[in-house]
Records
---
Amino acid sequence: MTMSKYELAYKVTISGEEVGYISSKSQFEQLINNEILNPDEENVAYVDINVEPEYHITLADIDDTDEEKIFAKIKENSVTTYRLYAIAINGENKTYVNGKEEAEQAVADLKQEYEGKLTETEISVQELYTQNLETLATVEVASAVSAMEEELNVKVQYEEAKKAATLDGVYFATKPVSGNITSRFGAVESIRDHVHQGMDIAAPGGTPIVAAADGTVTFAGWSGGYGNLLIISHGNGIQTYYGHCSKLYASVGQTVSAGEKIAAVGTTGYSTGNHLHFEIRKNGKQVNPQKYVYK
């Protein structure tokens, strides 16, 4: 008759449930430490094991140990948290890399490349933690820099366009109406006895007119040759005039935003057809609107 060989072993229980037997507690704990708690895996910040195995010394048949089964049980109850680094524009994460030093070097290089070109853009490194690497896929640093350059070049173009459309701190963000320019600033024409001090944009009657920049309405009513006129003050002595309107939707004292509907195209006052007469004034003096809009 063959006798089973019994030796000292450890019965392992998890949450009070018997899982199996191991032959060496120290070797098993070393396996957990090497393979679960300190894996040879990039970006691991730390690992939490959500179960606490308990070991009970006993006699067991060494041929019936269950190391692989117990290890799998513990591993499936572990959660890995990864650390990675985002390169961000104005606090918004754009791309991710593995190492802190390489992220900081990439940001330093980008700041040097775009120094003086971007005044409204901050490039920074953000340290992040995640338990799902698939949602925050990292890329090689060269690819990250290339992607950032594409976006930053767009921002450079935007800032240059915004600067060109800004007068004494007032940004003319939009055209007040879409249409054909029929008379430009400074034009000398037979229909008037003076040089044109604004610009005319032809559009069908009733076409919405929007504020060219943020500001406060300071006049809304009839004004001689302008017909129905609306004036917006934008601060720093800058005003915009919207003349010949068929309707005025904004009222005096109202704060309006760029792009907000304020009036409708018409042909009131001294006018030969439906159009918007648009002026920009600085400290009461007309300036050429096409320096800032309708370029």
---
Amino acid sequence: MDDSRPVTVLLARFEDLVGAGLRSVVGADPHMRIVAADVDVDRLDAVIAERAPRVAIVNFGSLRAPADIRRLSAAHPATRLVVLANHPTPGECAQLLALGATACLGKEVERRDVLTTIHLASRGLHVTPHAIGATASTPLLPDVLTPREAEVLDQLQLGRSNREIAVALSVSVETVRTHARSVFRKLGVKGRRELATLSAHRR
């Protein structure tokens, strides 16, 4: 990437005050250029493909499911996804990073934190709320889900049984149990019931 060029940024649709704040903050930075703003979730794929932003700031609350992050990341690997959510926990951010996001922040973050995150994310560095203010070399969350755990998580959130997940992923039921226990531990939940509440809390 040419560091002398402004970082191109796409802004998804947010609540009025959040959206206006993002446009003001990002638009005022001479090292950034907004290539699209107020993009509805149903148009994200098309607009990212057309404008090819280096960073896309996505509203978690407008997504249909966490798996949308995996789909967007896979479809647009050159675009770094920065996800903004309401008071995300470390476990929730770990899930989002495992699904393909480059950064996860709360919507209440300060101006300088948004700008810092965009710059770090544009270089492929992972950022979470707890890494803000730390050095740029702050490591990725130690409890980030592995790709296989993220696949199991997707299946769990669909309400599937261990046997159904085993068939879908072509693994043994015991392997599913092992991954599920790891997912629960990393996300800080006791089991499927608590896991089911995460999406509601995140929006």
